[in-house]
Amino acid sequence: MRTATTAFKRKHSSCNARRLETLLREKFRLSLFSYEEVPNGKDVFDLNFNEIPGLSQTQMEEWFHQAVAPDSSRLREGAIAKLEPQFISCDFQAGETVMEYKVLEWELNPQSMVHGGIIITGFDTSLGMLCHYYAYPNILTTVSLTSTFVRPIRMGDTMVYHSKIKSFGRSLVTLEGKVYLKSTGELAATATATFKILHHKVRTQI
């Protein structure tokens, strides 16, 4: 009797998990989750960007190259344009990007180190662009961004930003970022950010 009851519970739990997956796929316009049964019986939903229609590794590379091109709408004016971001690489399946920012003289504080606000702006830009790619053409806004500074960044160096999506919901996306010194490969700062998808379409193409 106990064996039959246990088998029924497992079958019922599996059905509920599959039903939940179906509801998630119907609820979210983009199918970002895939169900995986693990030995301990916990329900795990992993990001599965390969199931988003029309997106791919090649398309992602093209999107980012266009986003940081000199004639891009993002780089015509404002803070992002002044930072002069450079796209290095991306991993579509993993939800990751690498971007570089050369240290510019105007970014330095009185101690001849990159101002902390500049580093945070770099995180906001890098993480925001990664989030925006998967949520495009919806508009985003930053909900929170916390940063930890590990070591100073000086003139003559380049800041290498590594960004990764950690969770992607219907309205909220959480990402992690790390910035390394290109000269030594040392970690200079880390950040965690949450963005909200406003579900309003952007007015201009990137």
Number of strands: 8
β-strand amount = 25-35%
Cα-atom radius of gyration = 20 Å
Question: Which word captures the global form?
Answer: globular
- The side-by-side strand order for the widest beta sheet comes to 3-4-6-7-8-5
By DSSP (H or I, 4+ residues per run), the number of helices equals: 4
Main β sheet profile: 6 strands, antiparallel
What is the chain-wise order of helices and strands? HEEHHEEHEEEE
Give the overall average pLDDT.
81
Helix-and-strand structural type: alpha+beta
Low-confidence stretches: 8-15, 20-45
Percentage of residues assigned to helices: 25-40%
Q: How many angstroms separate the termini?
A: 62 Å
Descriptive labels:
single chain; 206 residues; alpha+beta; 8 strands; 30% helix
Task: Write up what this structure looks like.
- With 206 residues, the chain is of the alpha+beta class.
- The chain is 30% helix and 34% strand.
- The protein has 4 helices and 8 strands.
- It has helices at residues 2-27, 57-67, 79-83, 116-135; strands at residues 33-37, 43-47, 86-91, 96-102, 138-149, 158-168, 172-181, 187-201.
Element layout with pairings:
Blueprint: H1 2-27, E1 33-37, E2 43-47, H2 57-67, H3 79-83, E3 86-91, E4 96-102, H4 116-135, E5 138-149, E6 158-168, E7 172-181, E8 187-201
Antiparallel strand pairs: 1-2, 3-4, 4-6, 5-8, 6-7, 7-8
